[in-house]
Write a structure and sequence with these properties.
heterodimer; A: mainly alpha; 80% helix; B: alpha+beta; Rossmann fold; OB fold (Dihydrolipoamide Acetyltransferase, E2P)
């Protein structure tokens, strides 16, 4: 058996984290992407930039501020404590919050592009066929932007699996709790367990390559269907 | 079905002009909005549908008020009982043809809408396409499905925005007969936007001519076309529309005689039975004027007329002459020199020679 139980636990936590992050993002990013694609408000540019920020910031910066926010003296930390939930920092829930924020642009951008490329026409057609805004959104905009939604889900999942900086900063690398594959590899290397590190690292390479290949094939198929 | 007319009053600033219309349209037949591109005709349609909002507007379809800014009424598009056919194919690509047709029907859910859909499928000949997906259809088939989909909501009015503009000539000829069937068999008022004089001649019962956001002329199509003070369909397309019926046939020469109020014309036998109604288009360029009844000419159709009016044409060398032939008006395009040489004047009795007549179904 190339992987010890602790490493398997890290793999399991990673899959759990990535799945939950993706689900949260589909719920959270869809309205944001729709709003950004439709609005003519002057808040569009600043909010668009804010959503994209995690893409360019070093994960350590993001992790640092999240840690401050969630810590005992941060506003979020004070709130969770007053509700009797304890602190989010160094917990799996805290990790989930961090992952959702750091992967937000990977979910919003493909959806926003998909919504924008639909143009106004499908929604107008739906309106002339008696569908109200919400009705038309769920029955026309979402199904027609499904390729963008799928891309968003895959990218969010893959990016969460590949996240390291934020995870290390707010998760604290606690085995069975907040230790994921990327931090497990770091641990193996620190402990000079190169063979163990290889198995996990190679697994990540294969996983990431498969995801990107799948995305490319998906895009080609979508183009063919559209054409 | 409503007998009250359709009222459309709009006032809307555009980039180059101000769109100002005040129209009362009949509650049956096809009202064609004709004008060059950029004249505001599509905007009129979008305002009627509520896709765009004019500032001071009144949109009444029969007894239903869709927008009345004086009373603070504005119904959103999905609450207006209309059907809309867009210029380009606008079918939902994630649904098959049946899914597209049922999209609006489901949201209306009336027995009448179901009957209308059945009629529309039959009327537009799309029964064999129901399981196909949008991208498997030809351009003409897509537009027929889009029209049936709009009809399936049992609308009070059908709005068509250049529905044939994106199609080639052959596909256009394929759809026109279906539209004519709709005009003749459904008692549904239609607003039809086009810049094509050909489509207008085939479909219009009422004509609105728009130019730079203003209505230049409107009324029953025959009247508008024959009015020389606003030679509306300028250029090569100026002409009149006549309604008549087949009087007799001449099998030896494959001809038929079509009578209209004020005269009769011999045309190619189109295989119509005696008494069948015929719409004919006489272009001004195919009508010439002679002072005596012509003799020894290859042109077989001569009509005794009276000169009624004359206006300058687009080119300074030419004039448009309106001729009164009984209760019917004809237009003739002749040179200004001919007008002077023949000493034509209002009230003079002349003969119109008609070189060719197009029968429009």
């Amino acid at each position: 058996m190339p992987l010890d139980p602790v490493a398997w636990q890290a793999v399991q936590r990673t899959v759990e984290l990535a799945t939950l992050t993706t689900l949260c993002l589909l719920v959270l990013a869809t309205p944001i992407a729709w709003w950004l694609s439709q609005t003519t408000s002057r808040w569009r540019a600043p909010l668009g930039a804010l959503v994209t920020l995690p893409l360019v910031l070093p994960p350590s910066v993001l992790g640092f501020y999240l840690l401050v926010l969630m810590g005992p003296n941060g506003p979020l930390g004070q709130f969770t404590q007053s509700m009797g939930w304890g602190l989010l920092s160094f917990s799996f829930t805290g990790l989930l919050v961090g992952s959702v924020i750091s992967s937000l642009p990977f979910a919003v951008q493909p959806m926003q592009h998909a919504f924008e490329s639909l143009g106004r026409r499908p929604m107008e057609v739906a309106a002339t066929l008696r569908a109200g805004r919400m009705d038309a959104f769920f029955t026309v905009a979402l199904p027609q932007a499904r390729a963008g939604l799928l891309t968003a889900a895959i990218l969010s999942f893959a990016h969460t699996v590949g996240e390291f900086g934020v995870v290390l900063m707010i998760g604290g690398n606690i085995p069975g709790q907040t230790r994921v594959v990327s931090t497990q590899i770091y641990g193996h290397v620190e402990a000079m367990e190169y063979a163990q590190a290889h198995w996990l690292a190679a697994g990540m390479v294969v996983f990431s390559f498969t995801v990107l290949l799948g995305l490319a094939l998906l895009r080609r198929r979508t183009v063919r269907v559209m054409g | 079905m409503t007998e009250e007319p359709l009222r459309i009053v709009l006032d809307l600033p555009r980039a180059e002009f101000r769109l100002q219309v005040d129209l009362t349209l009949p509650s049956s037949g096809i009202s064609v909005l004709l004008g060059p591109s950029g004249s505001g005709k599509t905007t009129v349609l979008r305002c009627v549908a509520g896709l765009e909002r004019a500032q001071r507007a009144l949109v009444r379809m029969g007894e239903e008020t869709w927008q009345d800014d004086a009373a603070g009424v504005f119904l959103p598009t999905h609450q207006r009982a209309l059907g809309y056919v867009f210029q380009e194919a606008s079918l939902f690509e994630h649904l098959d043809v049946m899914g597209n047709l049922r999209y609006g029907l489901r949201r209306v859910a009336s027995a009448q809408a179901q009957r209308t859909l059945d009629t529309a499928i039959e009327l537009l000949g799309i029964g064999h396409l129901l399981q196909r997906r949008a991208h498997q259809l030809s351009g003409g088939e897509r537009q027929r499905v889009a029209i049936a989909r709009a009809l399936a909501t049992a609308p009070r009015v059908l709005l068509l925005d250049e529905p044939l503009a994106a199609l080639d000539h052959a596909r256009r000829q394929e759809i026109l007969p279906w539209l004519e069937r709709m005009r003749d068999e459904l008692h549904l008022p239609m607003l039809y936007v086009t810049h094509s004089a050909d489509e207008m001649a085939r479909l219009a019962s009422h004509l609105v001519v728009l130019e730079a956001g203003s209505v230049r002329a409107h009324g029953p199509v025959a009247e508008v076309l024959a009015s020389v003070d606003t030679p509306v369909v300028a250029g090569e397309d100026a002409g009149v529309l006549l309604r008549g019926e087949v009087l007799e046939h001449d099998p030896q020469w494959y001809l038929m005689k079509v009578g209209f109020p004020g005269g009769a014309l011999w045309l190619k036998d189109a295989g119509l039975r005696q008494g069948a109604p015929v719409r004919m288009r006489l272009l001004a360029r195919d009508v010439s004027v002679v002072l005596q009844e012509p003799d020894g000419t290859s042109i077989q159709n001569h009509l005794r007329c009276e000169v009624d009016a004359m206006v300058p044409d687009a080119h300074p060398s030419q004039v448009l002459v309106r001729l009164r032939c009984g209760p019917t008006w004809l237009l003739a395009r002749i040179t200004r020199r001919a007008w002077e040489t023949l000493a034509l004047r209002d009230g003079l009795v002349v003969w119109a020679q008609v070189k060719s007549v197009a029968v429009v179904p």
